[in-house]
Amino acid sequence: MFHYYCLNPISSVGLEGFTEGYEAVQNPAEAEGILVRSASMHEMELPEKLLAVARAGAGTNNIPLDKCAEKGIVVFNTPGANANGVKEIVIAAMLLASRDIVDGINWVKENSTDPEVGKKAEKIKKNFAGTEVQGKKLGIIGLGAIGVKVANTAKHLGMEVYGYDPYVSVDAAWNLSRDVKHVIDVNEIYEKCDIITIHVPLLDSTKGMIGETALEKMKDGVILLNFARDLLVDEPAVVRAIESGKMRRYVSDFPNPVTAGKKGCIVIPHLGASTEESEDNCAAMAVKELMDYLENGNIKNSVNYPACDMGVCTQAGRISIFHKNVANMITRFAALFGEKGINISDMINKSKGEVAYTMLDVEEKASEEIIDTLRAIPGVFRVRVVK
Predict the structure, then answer these.
(1) pLDDT over 80 at 169, yes or no
(2) Taking burial as the number of CB atoms within 10 A of a residue's CB, which of 39, 292, 331, 375 is the most buried?
């Protein structure tokens, strides 16, 4: 029996995916798996029993990844599960920014008690005249699951789409419309595009990537959309660009005092993936990842350990080992089983940065002595008997 704990309310659609071999607990110390959305785990004492954390969403800034890696705790996320919800709000934001719909709606609210509101609207509406998106150039920075969906939808709206992503995956490339212009220099997007939307993760290398230098290269009257992370953009610089007339609109999904209520800024209360469908999809994927890992030791969509899949074990035993990514580790593991006369029928070893993950299928169950010896090897974080 496996036990799981939910740090946040998790969609019932996802939780229904757990089979009879799983039980919810009220104390995280009793759980092998934790499901989380936005709750911060940085100050949390990680239980010794904890094997995995599944984030029902893409971002993992609320989880101490390095600390988990050192304890052999696998952290999963759910890339792409909420992509359609984010895509739809990005398209909506592009239309809101282009047509000045928000200011128009606010004018109607402010004049809602005026019996002449209809007649006055006909006179005032020219102040809210916007532009159409058809024929405009859209630049997409980051062609992951969301970026690709935005690109393909924009093509159907009659836009000329430019995409930038030096690390675009094979899957993303296959799903991307052939009509999207894939550029190799992000400056081409800054210089050519009328509307720019950013869809990259927040890393040291991307923090503040849209700053003074990038803004200076953009076309006058550019519209910038940010539904990725607020820190990707130097927002004080954006406010200055709007005030100077350089930028037409900035749409952000991340409220803060810098942009909230500022002229030219449309700030949305972090609604990007806040749809019933997105929450259901993320929860279902998180549960599936967690179950496959707990039952079989397989890792898919982990942010702190490499992907590994050996299917369902058909041998007598399966051992998983979390360790430093250094030389001679595999030799030591194999030698130990060889000394005990236990044949390794299948093996996989993958690394991710400074950590590595090894799975061994063996023809005889490993004794406690073998497991203890594996744990004592310098550089080993954790040894788990999967079967």
Answers:
(1) no
(2) 292
| DSSP secondary structure, 57-76, as one string | SS--TTS-HHHHHHTT-EEE
Three-class SS state of 346: strand
Residue 53 DSSP class: E
103-107 contacts, C-beta under 8 A, 24 or more apart:
103/127, 103/128, 104/128
Q: Residue 339 has what pLDDT?
A: 93
Residue 251 near residue 92, CB atoms below 8 Å: no
Three-state DSSP at 339 gives: helix
Query: What per-residue confidence (pLDDT) applies to 199?
Result: 95
Residue 202 pLDDT exceeds 90 = no
Closest CA to 145 of 182, 109, 105, 173: 173
Coil, strand or helix at 23 = strand
C-alpha span between 268 and 173 (Å, rounded): 30
Report the half-sphere exposure of 124 (CA within 13 A, side-chain side): 15
Q: Encoding tokens for residue 187? A: 């400056």
Q: Where is average pLDDT lowest: 23-27, 55-59, 132-136, 295-299?
A: 55-59
Average pLDDT (13-37) is 96
- Cα–Cα distance, 156 to 220 (Å, whole number): 25
pLDDT tens digit string along 42-87?
A: 999 999 999 999 999 888 989 999 999 999 999 999 989 999 999 9
Q: Look-up: residue for tokens 């093509």? A: 155
Please, are residues 187 and 175 in contact by the beta-carbon 8 Å criterion?
no
SS3 2: strand
At 271 the three-state DSSP class reads coil
CA-only gyration radius of the chain, Å: 25
pLDDT of residue 59: 82
Dihedral, 102, 107, 111, 116 alpha carbons, nearest 10: -110
How do beta strands 380-385 and 317-324 pair?
A: antiparallel
- Counts of helices then strands in the chain (DSSP H, E): 13, 16
pTM confidence score: 0.81
Residues paired with 317 in a beta bridge: 362
Nearest to 161 by CA among 173, 175, 179, 145: 179
Contacts of 222 (CB under 8 A, 6+ apart): 193, 194, 195, 196, 246, 247, 248
